[in-house]
Amino acid sequence: MINADEIAGILKHQIESFKAELHEDEVGTVIEVGANLARIYGLRSVCASELVEFPNGLLGVALNLEEDNVGVVILGPDHDIKEGDRVRRTGRIASVPVGEALLGRVVNALGEPIDGKGPIDTHKYRTIENVAPGVVARQPVKQPLQTGIRAIDALIPIGKGQRELIIGDRSTGKTAIAVDAIINQKGCNVFCIYVAIGQKNSTVAALAQILEQKGAMEYTTIVAASPSEAAALRWIAPFSGCAMGEELMYAGKDVLIVYDDLTKHAQSYREMSLLLRRPPGREAYPGDVFFLHSRLLERAAKLSDELGGGSMTALPVIETQAGDFSAYIPTNVISITDGQIYLTPNLFFQGIRPAVDIGLSVSRVGGSAQIKAMKSVAGQLKLELAQYRDLAAFAKLSSDLDKGTQMQLLRGEKLTELLKQPQYRPQPVEDQVVLIYAATHGFVNDVPTPRLQEWAGGFIDFLHAKYAEISTSIATSGQLSDDVSKQLDAALADFRKTV
Hints:
This protein has 499 residues and is an alpha/beta fold. Helices cover 39% and strands 17% of the residues. The strands form 3 sheets. Strands 8-12-11-13-14-10-15-16 form an 8-stranded mixed β-sheet, with helices on both faces. It has a 6-stranded antiparallel beta barrel with strand order 1-2-5-4-3-6. Helix 5 (231-249) crosses helix 6 (262-275), helix 7 (289-297) runs parallel beside helix 8 and helix 10 (372-395) crosses helix 11 (403-418). The protein is elongated, with a radius of gyration of 28 Å.
């Protein structure tokens, strides 16, 4: 039997508990589209850097907020977007997936995997644009970040939280330095992010393969934006990589991030700005191109202990044209960073690799980013190389030189040879210290210069086999005590007998 009162009670209860949900979307109309940019009429309340959605599911970023329209950069191909299409506000600022799940993966500028290894298992997202830590939130850069490259760790030291620019002409070994630094972080509990801006997919694939072979891919994320992709994706790629690094930094971890390179990044931003009809300035770059890079690089920091003590070290790369580092973008980034590693084609073609120009390169953090053992041997090395540079220039003008000058030139030549290092072969800091000690204390004076690399490799093998306690002592204490120096002198004398 149907009970009318029961049915009436149920209906009455449903009517009383009924709530009308009104969902309101702000929608605009595409009035112009082309070159991965769209002008949209009607999104009156849209925010700067907010994501908007096109009918085909493609996203765009609101960049130009003008009086009667909004300039949107489209994050992908614009073939399916046409005039008159409806565009919806999402209410979200551009963000990317973050977390340790991204380690070992190759992703695009939006954090989507492109390595064919399946989806990334993370539910954490972080906005790509974030405010850099303030003065109170930071602490001084005082912990070394070893690159494994003798010329850099001894003369241009890099510390955790520093921003060190790698600058030079095309094909002078800029990427090689950054990749060696990543490989050298194996076992150091430092996570690495490599942002490839406008690099060929084949180059990125080759890099990923090298990192895999060296066992470095397990703690590295590669963010890639190829030249064939929209300029907007090349523009947001470094910000996406930085957001991924920030997540780890604020979790108390140490991060090394490489931006390769910011010249192509600035060119992508210039392309978008000119198409959006923003006023061009010097070299046709928009007026805020300095702010573009400063707000990116300032996010690298060594956080205070109250915030977990995490760090993010940035190695931005800049490509110069014919050695002109007084151009607009190079000078901008030099003024933002804490020093620069300057690479020159002349040294590269002379066979001095890495082709670091010691005279023009500088680290504004200096000895505070070195272990005491390295600081004690590097001071003498800097002095001797500086004297050698001056004498080498003078020696070209003079034919007859006194014996003292000839000896100094010979020592400088040997030190320069010792600072050469093969690619993908970073060296532990304790091995670097003993080699520089041997060179600055005259133990290599009688070794022929062409055989010096062979001598160095043989001595390190000999030291590990017979005097392993020397390397262990330097590695654990970070100091070169008098006792260890005496042991090292004995080891060098012993090795001389075997050669």
